[in-house]
Amino acid sequence: MSRRTECEPETPTSHSCLVTNAALHDVWVSEICPKLSGVDIIRFSMTNTWAHEIAHRVIHHEGLTVLPARHAHCPAVYTHWPQLRLSLHFVQCSHWGTSSSCQMTSTKMCSVRELKLARCRAMDFEDVDTTRLEILTIDQCLANKLEPEECDSLARMLASCKSLVALSLKFCIGWDDETEWLINSLPHLSRSLTHLDLSGNNMGAERIKHLAGALAQMTRLTHLVLGGNHIQVGGARSLCTVLDKMPQLTHLNLAVNMMQSEGIIALCGVVVNLHHLTWLDLNWNEMRPVGLRHLVVHVAHMPQLKYLNVRGNYLDETTKDDARHMLTKQNPNLEELVL
Question: Which domains does the chain have, with CATH numbers?
Answer without folding.
Answer: 193-339 (3.80.10.10)
